[in-house]
What we know:
It is a single chain. The chain has 139 residues and is mostly beta strands. It has one domain. It has two helices and 14 strands; from the N terminus they run E-E-E-E-E-E-E-E-E-E-E-E-E-E-H-H. Strands 1, 2, 3, 4, 5, 6, 7, 8, 9, 10, 11, 12, 13 and 14 form a 14-stranded parallel sheet that branches. The protein is globular, with a radius of gyration of 14 Å. The protein starts with 6 loop residues before the first strand and ends with a helix. Residues 110-139 are annotated as: Disordered. Pfam families: Bactofilin. This is Protein CcmA, bactofilin family.
Amino acid sequence: MEMASAxxxxxxxLSIIGDIEATSDIxxxxxICGNVVTKKKVIVGxxxxxxxxxxxxEICVMGEVLGDLxxxxxxxxxxxxxxxxxxxxxxxxxxxxxxxxxxxxxxxKGGATERSAKSQKGNDPNTPRRPVEELMKMD
Length: 139
């Protein structure tokens, strides 16, 4: 995996409603209600909460995620992680103690999975995204 030249950090206490697209690694310690897209790595820290879909090359979840993950490489969940949704990745690692309710599928390097291609509405099939309004209603 190519290293990013920088890391975008969303600090504790920061709340964002809206989609995030970056060319860098992303570390989330605050609250995000929206989709997160990068070709680099995403870290959801212990204080981080994401309500939305995440597209990345790699992810490490230590906080909370409510949404679907589309990960080209490793999707890792630490013992502190809470996750509810679908994980589509090349590899997955779940530590004992993680609170996860998942549907898991293998990442198709040629593009999106069949499910994700059907769920998107006019977007690039490799990055289906749910509208923020729909994400705000999720529990």
